[in-house]
Amino acid sequence: MGHDNILPVLYDLIVTIGSEISVKPLLTRTLQRLLYHTSFSAGFICLDVPPCSRDDGQVEVHLDAAVGDFDLIGELGKQIFLPCELICKTAEREDEQAALLSALRCTQTPYKAYLKLPIPNCGVIVLLAATIPATRLPLTTMLQPVLAHLAKAILLCRRNDAYTSGLALRRDLLEEVFESSYSAVTITDSESNIIEVNPAFTRITGYTPEEVLGRNPQMMASGRHGQDFFEEMWDTIRAEGHWEGEIWNRRKNGEVFPCWININQVNDKAGSLLYYVSMFSDISKRKEAEAQIHQLEFYDPLTQLPNRRLLMERLQQAFAVGSRTGQHGAVLFIDLDNFKAINDTKGHETGDLLLAEVAKRLRTCVREGDTVARLGGDEFVVALEYLNAISDEAAAQADLVAENIRDVLSQPYNLMNHTHHTTPSIGVVLFRGHQQSLDDVLKHADTAMYQAKTAGRNAIRFYDPVMQAAIEARADLEEELRHALDKKQLQLHYQIQVDSLRRPIGAEALLRWTHPERGSILPEHFVPLSEESGMIVSIGIWVLNAACAQLKAWQHDPLTRDLTLAVNVSAKQLHKADFVLQVQHILLKTGIRPALLKLELTESAVLEDVEDTINKMREIKLLGVSFSMDDFGTGYSSLQYLKRLPLDQVKIDQSFVRDITTDPNDAAIVQTVIAMGEALGLDVIAEGVETEAQREFLDLRGCHAFQGFLFGRPMPVEEFEAMLRASRG
Ligand code: C2E
Ligand code: MG
Ligand code: MG
């Protein structure tokens, strides 16, 4: 390099420096260009040189760039020790320079001369030569602008390097996360075609990337979700850019599994859709574990019945329901009478089998929503819900279940080829809402159970003595009623029905039980009981027979010949499979005119099974018998089904008639019923007519048939006939 061409050299160096963006190539290229333009053969650069402070005159530096010497290049990136003087000042004399350079580990040993070019505030460039260069230009000074420029470039490149190495780090990190993630990751393009999946995806689904790339993730659909589910999901993704939830997917091997999935929409800066990224994990293990934990926590492992804890929860709920609805619930505390003996003599295995079988039988004794729980040992609890709001009725319902349980558990058990017998003692407590505490209810049921044991086992006891007495009285009554038919204690009374001119048109047959001690018992005291026990079926047949026999007897007298006779039919009776046959049989047997027989049904009896009712009514009407809807307006009649029933008459319930002249609501209801009857082409009769005002009110509004104390109370047939004769006379 000569004086005259220094400018192009500086220009070249500055262009070189300016075109680099990273420190390492910047230093190397700068060194290369320097060597090219000077007569030096090798060189190196150390940045961030520390001050020379060591005793041995050495300084530890970092070799950041080296060019032209293999050994030096081999030390690149390392920390090396150099004489302090070499770095800090320039020796002028040749022998001095050679001595300093002998410290370097170099290929071309020994270098004889060097040139030190300081980079301001940054480091130092050292150029090496085997012989002292011929020109002795003041290179340090001439290159000053280049070195200043280099200092700035190093600063910028360092920042740039830091930035890009940061990016690279992040990219590496993300890739690492993607590859090693425990969750499956699926990336799809905007058309929902899979463009990337990670190894966890393959592990979970069984599909390799090749098998899924380009396909829609729906290929994994399990078929467990409807179209609606996915539409809602996509609506959410489109609206919020995100959706998260549980989905059942299908693996390559066909297995369906639950996963928790997280779908994110990725947009570019302008907001247009680029990708969907979804992450999901297989939660089948977790679900299984949860189910197992739940099972262990809340169920008895031997019988699979709810344990005490779950029972308490269910009872809490039942208390809440009772508070809301006013309905009763009941707790039945059941203990096996000779379990300990079986367990001790036949072994635990037999004992366990017995308990499992008891659990199975208990389950068959309750309705869907009721709870059967095992408290431990041979103690079981049955919790009943939705019993009647009237406590006597609820007690009867609970008693019925308890009796059924006693029967079922008393059947022989066949365990390990041996027959065993056991009986239960059952304690019963009713509850309604939070009137008593949960603990009290269980304690009382337990007490009642011990009373059952003391009463001789295989027994049922209510905790409440009044209730127990009522149940016992009821049981006695039921027993007596069983014999009432045989003992001819049942009779029919007859209540007259009249038209607007008070002319008799018919009668209603009303059942009476003449009890040897208690005298005449009204149906309200024994009909519900006989319905529960099923006795109403045979009683009902007796009533029909007696009524038809009466109709037959009336045929001989012109006074009674044309009277119709209404007979009440209960739900249990109506829904018996052979009810139509029974009616037909009685008609044939007595040979009465069927048109004189009128069957009264209640709305609740009809509603129990509307289709069955309609079919039976049609068949019976074909025989010539007619139908009346009793207690009309007290049930939940809807016009819908009323229209479909082949009725002849509706009977306005006495509860509306009672206040008809004083209560505008009742008056309105009665008028509506009359209008409806007219519209449907039905006769209308009012029952419970006690005053002339009521009769007149009804008559004026289009009801022209009446029954009630105003015309006659229900009475034995002799009195009834006498009354007829008297009125005619
Ligand atoms: P029901 O069929 O609605 O019978 C009318 C009830 O109202 C009868 O009560 C009758 O004595 C009463 N009654 C009649 N006129 C008046 C009145 O002017 N004022 C008042 N306050 N009451 C009046 P009973 O005889 O005690 O019968 C009660 C219910 O027992 C009957 O209601 C019916 O549902 C049922 N029942 C009666 N006999 C039989 C039967 O043979 N079989 C069936 N399954 N149920 C029957
Ligand atoms: Mg009736
Ligand atoms: Mg009635």
Give the distinct bound molecules: ligand C2E, magnesium ion
For the record, the count of structural domains works out to: 4
**Structural class assignment:** alpha+beta
Number of β-strand runs: 26
CATH topology of the largest domain, anyone?
TIM Barrel
Q: Shape from CA axes?
A: elongated
> What helical percentage do the residues reach?
40-55%
What's the name of the CATH homologous superfamily of the largest domain?
Answer: EAL domain
Which CATH class of the largest domain is shown?
Answer: Alpha Beta
Average pLDDT metric? 91
- Architecture (CATH level 2) name of the largest domain: Alpha-Beta Barrel
Largest sheet: 8 strands, mixed, barrel
Counting DSSP H or I runs of 4 or more residues, the number of helices is 28
Cα(first) to Cα(last) distance is 160 Å
Q: How much beta, percentage-wise?
A: 15-25%
Low-confidence segments:
none
Give the neighbour order of strands across the main sheet. 18-19-21-22-23-24-25-26
Rg is 52 Å
Task: Provide key terms for this protein.
47% helix; five-stranded antiparallel sheet; binds magnesium ion; 4 domains; 28 helices; 26 strands; eight-stranded mixed beta barrel; Beta-Lactamase; alpha+beta; 729 residues; Alpha-Beta Plaits; binds ligand C2E
Report on this structure.
- By secondary structure, the chain is of the alpha+beta class.
- It has 4 domains: 3-160, GAF domain (Beta-Lactamase, 2-Layer Sandwich); 169-287, 2-Layer Sandwich (Beta-Lactamase), CATH 3.30.450.20; 299-477, Reverse transcriptase/Diguanylate cyclase domain (Alpha-Beta Plaits), CATH 3.30.70; 485-728, TIM Barrel.
- It has 28 helices and 26 strands.
- The strands form 5 sheets. Strands 18-19-21-22-23-24-25-26 form an 8-stranded mixed beta barrel, surrounded by 5 helices.
- The mean pLDDT is 91.
- The chain binds ligand C2E and magnesium ion (MG) (2 copies).
